[in-house]
């Protein structure tokens, strides 16, 4: 049953994304995760607590979040499949739809390319600032384009491959448990002093949840890009994350670009390793090429889900 649910959710997301009108009215489910994380962090991540205590509270926060997300999803899936008999899977697919980000990722990255093509560097910086955490105010055109391409590659895993993987594996509870973990990592899984202990469990669990999907994403991007295998194998570990480097290196290799390198966060420059080889002077055309690879890789995911449904 998970396969037709996955295909329907993919189709809904590809066609509609998460509509702005719907977002304005009800927000997005991850907003509820963020609210719960904020509530726990305010009460439990206090400077007066020892490092060990903050780590334990961080574990408790993650467990609570996953129980709420997966438990609610399991109850909804059970009730819908039971009450609606043969049609419940459609309702389950609708509930899985917001956890996917194919359309929104494409739209956000394309917006960056459009601003670059229009020679609107301030607009391009603003657009890329919507999808990256680094400082963007001083990025030149190449830096903006690289940031957009890097985000596209990394988010192909976080926003598409991994949610679909967990949906196929564990159904609606799986996809929403993953989104809860990924949201926790985004909000508290940082290395700064404030978050290092409290966010430890979120960061490590997210690493585990993305281990297979990240490598699958890298393979799909290499297949879709017609190359990049050597760079993926060589440079995937140049990234600080044990997972994000795989799709990023695959995209860099497929495009023949250098990505990553020194990056500024909150005014502090971080001397990160380069990923890929060739030139680093990316532009709007390179974003278009990256989006084309992304679309082909996404089509392969549809084939995987369809093939699983056919074999079932």
Description:
- The chain is mainly α and 312 residues long.
- The protein has one domain (2-311).
- 72% of the residues lie in helices and 4% in strands.
- The strands form 2 sheets. The protein has a two-stranded antiparallel ribbon. A two-stranded antiparallel ribbon has the order 2-3.
- The protein is globular and about 55 Å long.
- The mean pLDDT is 92.
Q: Which range does the strand content fall in?
A: under 5%
Structural class: mainly alpha
What is the overall pLDDT average? 92
Number of helices: 12
What is the terminal-to-terminal distance? 9 Å
What is the β-strand count? Answer: 4
- H and E order: HHHHHHHHHHHEEEEH
Low-confidence stretches: none
Biggest pleated sheet: 2 strands, antiparallel
> What oligomeric state best describes the polypeptide chains here?
single chain
Helical content stands at over 70%
Tally of domains: 1
Q: Order of strands across the biggest sheet?
A: 1-4
Q: What does the overall shape look like?
A: globular
Radius of gyration: 20 Å
Q: Topology, pairings included?
A:
Layout: H1 2-16, H2 20-26, H3 29-44, H4 51-83, H5 88-96, H6 102-117, H7 121-129, H8 141-188, H9 200-225, H10 229-235, H11 245-255, E1 258-260, E2 263-265, E3 268-270, E4 274-276, H12 284-311
Antiparallel strand pairs: 1-4, 2-3
List keywords for this structure.
312 residues; mainly alpha; two-stranded antiparallel ribbon; two-stranded antiparallel sheet; 12 helices; 72% helix; globular
Short recap of the structure:
The chain is mainly alpha-helical. The chain is 72% helix and 4% strand. The protein has helices spanning 2-16, 20-26, 29-44, 51-83, 88-96, 102-117, 121-129, 141-188, 200-225, 229-235, 245-255, 284-311; strands at residues 258-260, 263-265, 268-270, 274-276.
